[in-house]
Amino acid sequence: MANALQQIIRDRLDSERWSYGDVARRGGIPRSTVHHLATTDHMARMPQPATLEGLAQGLGLPLDTIRRAAAEACGIHLYAPAAEPAPASESSGDPEVDVLIASVQRLSAEDRRHVAALVESLLGRSSGAS
């Protein structure tokens, strides 16, 4: 069974009669990347933000749709906001933050404590350098 990202890509290719190359050209990303995303059943990690932006542009779909499908294909659930989504100019979140939060929630309690200690250490280091 196809994952969410595969399904979106396949549906869009079929409905528009596009090839992987068409999507790649439209989005400014390599054809091999489009092919990989369309054929990989379970991705080990999220694609880079630039890759997701290019795929969204190439498919003519909203970036948020592609980001959520890619996260799902990685086994990460991004929660939709309870209220009406903010306009793009008033974006309330960073995609990398959404992925981090969703990923941390899947860790054991002990691993979350390690992550918290790392974050505190990094924040302390950055505030001390100011």
Polypeptide structure, described:
This protein is mainly α and 130 residues long. 63% of the residues lie in helices and 0% in strands. It has 7 helices and no strands. The chain has helices spanning 4-16, 20-27, 31-39, 49-59, 63-73, 95-104, 109-128. Helix 1 packs across helix 5 (63-73) and helix 2 (20-27) packs across helix 3 (31-39). The longest helix has 20 residues, at 109-128. The chain is elongated and about 50 Å long. The N and C termini lie far apart (51 Å). Residues 82-92 have low confidence and may be disordered.
Offer a quick outline of the entry.
With 130 residues, this protein is an all-alpha fold. It is 63% helix and 0% strand.
Largest sheet: none
Distance between the termini: 51 Å
Number of strands: 0
Portion in strands:
under 5%
Query: Helices and strands: which structural class?
Result: mainly alpha
Task: Tally the helices.
Answer: 7
Identify the notable features of this structure and list them briefly.
single chain; 130 residues; mainly alpha
Fold blueprint:
Elements: H1 4-16, H2 20-27, H3 31-39, H4 49-59, H5 63-73, H6 95-104, H7 109-128
Helix pairs in contact: 1-5, 2-3, 2-4, 4-5
